[in-house]
Design a protein that fits this description.
There is one protein chain. With 497 residues, this protein is an alpha/beta fold. It folds into three domains: 209 residues, P-loop containing nucleotide triphosphate hydrolases (Rossmann fold, 3-Layer(aba) Sandwich), CATH 3.40.50.300; 183 residues, Rossmann fold; 29 residues, no CATH class. It is 37% helix and 13% strand. It is built from 19 helices and 14 strands. The chain is globular and about 65 Å long. The N and C termini lie far apart (79 Å). It binds adenosine monophosphate. The site of adenosine monophosphate has 15 residues, from helix 3.
Length: 497
C-alpha cells in the first residue's frame, strides 16, 4: 500500500470562495479588500445559507461587510431597475444604536452594492425627516435605521416593513443600554415572522442572550474573539497619577507620542460632556490641536469635527462614549481614557477604536487612586490584569506634586455626581422598561442628539414642536423642558441643530 503525502495547508479563503457575484467582488476590489477578515470568513457562508446568526464581533473586525455582503448577494435576484416604488420594497432592515453608526453602515452598504440595482438609504433622528421620507417613498431594498426615527417613519406611513426578509441588530448591547428594547420589540412585531435575523454585539450580557432567545431561531454563534474580551492587537497601559493631574498627564502623553515620532492622532475619552469640552480647551491652550465631540454639539459641528480629525487638522478628538460610538476611523493608533468608564463594557468599546482590522494600537488609561473599583471591574470583564504603571514625572502618591486647583475642584464636584452620573450625562436617567434598570438605574443615558427610545415626533403626529425646548424642537419631538433646565443649571444648554 502506498501513501501519498498531501499538503495539509488549507487553501486560502478569498472573497471568491464564497461565490459572491462579480459586481460585489468588483466593489470589494475598489475598496482595496484583498481577503476576508476572520468574522467575514465565518459569517458570510452562514448568512448566505439563510441561517440566523448571533455574532460576537468586536468593533473594527469588519463585521459590517460580514453581514452586508451576503445580504446583498441574497437580494440580487430581486434587484431591478424599475422606477416603480412597488418594485423596491424594504427587504433588509439594519438597526443600529446611533446615527453615526447608521451612517457608516449605510456608507458601507452603498459602496458594496454600487454596481448592482439594489437601492439603499439611511434614516436617523436629529435631521429633517422630509428627504428621508422621499427616499423611502421612492423605494429601497436595504434600509439602515436607528430605532426611534424608524418608528417615526412607520407612524407617518412613509415606510412599510411587511416584506422584510432580513433583519440585522447591530451593536445590540448598546441598543439595550440606550433603552431601545421597547422600540426594538415594536419594530420586530411589524416584520414577517418568516425572516432571517442577525444579531451582532461586542458583549454577550444576559439581556442580549434573552433578546436572542426571543427573536432568533436556532442561531449559529459566531465568535472571532472571546466574548467580552478586548482586541488582542491593542497594548493596554494604565498610568497611575495623582488626583488632579489628569489633564497634565494627557498633555504629557500626547506630547511624548509626538516627540517619539508616533502618530499624533488620538481619541481621548471623557465621561461627561462638560469635562469633554474643558479638556479640549485645555489641550488647545497647551498647543495641541484638539476638538470636543459630545451630545450637546450640533450634527453639523460633529460632522465638521470628525472631518477635521479624519483629514488630520485635529490631532486629539476629545469624546464622550455616546458621541464616539461607532465612529469608523481606520487605523486609529491610540486611545486615551482621561476618565476610566463607569461601565467595564464601555472600556471594551473604547479601546476597540484602536487596533482595528489587524492594525496594532495603544490604549492608555489615566487612573487615580479612587478608580480602583472601576479598574477591577474592567479586569474582571477582560479576564486579565492590566499593570498600573507610574507615569514619568508624575507622582502617583500625590505627596509632592502641585495640585491643579481647578481640577481638584472639578474632580470633587464630579465625584459628587458620580453615583448618579455616567456616560455623557449631566442628565442621568434610568433605562426604561428594562428588566435590569432597577439594578442599573443610572447606566449611561442616551444622547439627545442620537436616536433614542421612541416617542412619536410632533411632525409625525401632526402637532407643533414645543418651541420652548430648543433641543426638542431640533428633534421635532415635543419634549418637555426639564432636561434643558437641568442642562442650563449645569452650565450647558443644548444647542439647536
Ligand atoms: P467594521 O468592523 O465593519 O466597522 O470595519 C472596520 C474597518 O475595516 C472598516 O474601515 C472597513 O472598511 C474595513 N474592512 C472591512 N473588511 C475588510 C477587509 N476584508 N479588508 C480590509 N479592510 C476591511
Amino acid at each position: 500500500m502506498t501513501t501519498t503525502t498531501t499538503d495539509q495547508t488549507p487553501p486560502e479563503i478569498t472573497f471568491d470562495s464564497f461565490g459572491l457575484d462579480a459586481r460585489i467582488q468588483r466593489a470589494l476590489s475598489e475598496q482595496g479588500y484583498t481577503k476576508p477578515t476572520p468574522i467575514q470568513e465565518q459569517a458570510i457562508p452562514v448568512v448566505l445559507l439563510g441561517k440566523d446568526v448571533m455574532g460576537a464581533a468586536q468593533t473594527g473586525t469588519g463585521k459590517t461587510a460580514g453581514f452586508a455582503l451576503p445580504i446583498i448577494q441574497r437580494l440580487l435576484p430581486m434587484a431591478n431597475a424599475s422606477a416603480s416604488p412597488a418594485r423596491h420594497p424594504v427587504r433588509a432592515l439594519m438597526l443600529t444604536p446611533t446615527r453615526e453608526l447608521a451612517d457608516q453602515v449605510y456608507d458601507n452598504v452603498a459602496r458594496y452594492a454600487r454596481f448592482t440595482d439594489l437601492r439603499s438609504t439611511v434614516v436617523f433622528g436629529g435631521v429633517d425627516m422630509n428627504p428621508q421620507t422621499e427616499a423611502l417613498r421612492r423605494g429601497v431594498e436595504i434600509l439602515v435605521a436607528t430605532p426611534g426615527r424608524l418608528l417615526d417613519h412607520v407612524q407617518q406611513k412613509s415606510v412599510n416593513l411587511s416584506q422584510v426578509q432580513m433583519l440585522v441588530l447591530d451593536e445590540a448591547d448598546r441598543m439595550l443600554d440606550m433603552g431601545f428594547l421597547p422600540d426594538l420589540q415594536r419594530i420586530i412585531n411589524l416584520l414577517p415572522a418568516q425572516r432571517q435575523t442577525l444579531l451582532f454585539s461586542a458583549t454577550f450580557s444576559t439581556e442580549i442572550k434573552r433578546l436572542a432567545a426571543s427573536y432568533l431561531r436556532e442561531p449559529v454563534t459566531i465568535e472571532v474573539a472571546r466574548s467580552n474580551s478586548a482586541n488582542e492587537n491593542v497594548r493596554q497601559t494604565v498610568f497611575q497619577v495623582e488626583d488632579g493631574h489628569k489633564q497634565a498627564a494627557v498633555v504629557h502623553l500626547l506630547k511624548k507620542r509626538a516627540a517619539d515620532g508616533l502618530s499624533r492622532q488620538c481619541i481621548v475619552f471623557v465621561n461627561s460632556k462638560i469635562g469633554c469640552s474643558r479638556l479640549a480647551r485645555h489641550l488647545e491652550r497647551e498647543g495641541i490641536n484638539a476638538a470636543a465631540i459630545h451630545g450637546d454639539k450640533t450634527q453639523t459641528e460633529r460632522m465638521q469635527t470628525l472631518d477635521g480629525f479624519k483629514q488630520g487638522s485635529i490631532d486629539a478628538l476629545v469624546a464622550t462614549d455616546v458621541a464616539a460610538r461607532g465612529l469608523d476611523i481606520p487605523d486609529m493608533p491610540c486611545v486615551i481614557n482621561f476618565d476610566l468608564p463607569y461601565s467595564a463594557e464601555d472600556y471594551v468599546h473604547r479601546i476597540g477604536r484602536t487596533g482595528r482590522a489587524g492594525a496594532s494600537g495603544d490604549a492608555l488609561s489615566i487612573y487615580v487612586p479612587g478608580d480602583e473599583r472601576l479598574l477591577v471591574d474592567i479586569e474582571k470583564l477582560l479576564k486579565r490584569s492590566i499593570p498600573r504603571t507610574p507615569l514619568e514625572g508624575f507622582d502617583p502618591t500625590g505627596a509632592s506634586a502641585r495640585a491643579e486647583e481647578g481640577d481638584r475642584r472639578r474632580a470633587r464636584s464630579s465625584d459628587v455626581r458620580r453615583p448618579r452620573g455616567n456616560g455623557e450625562s449631566e442628565e442621568p436617567r434610568p433605562r426604561r422598561n428594562d428588566p435590569a434598570s432597577s439594578r442599573n438605574a443610572f447606566r449611561p443615558s442616551d444622547d439627545s442628539f442620537f436616536s433614542r427610545p421612541y416617542e412619536p415626533s410632533s411632525s409625525a403626529v401632526g402637532a407643533q414642536p414645543d418651541v420652548t425646548d430648543s433641543n426638542a424642537a431640533a428633534f421635532g419631538r415635543g419634549r418637555p423642558a426639564p432636561k434643558r433646565q437641568l442642562a442650563a443649571l449645569l452650565g450647558g444648554v443644548p444647542r439647536k441643530s
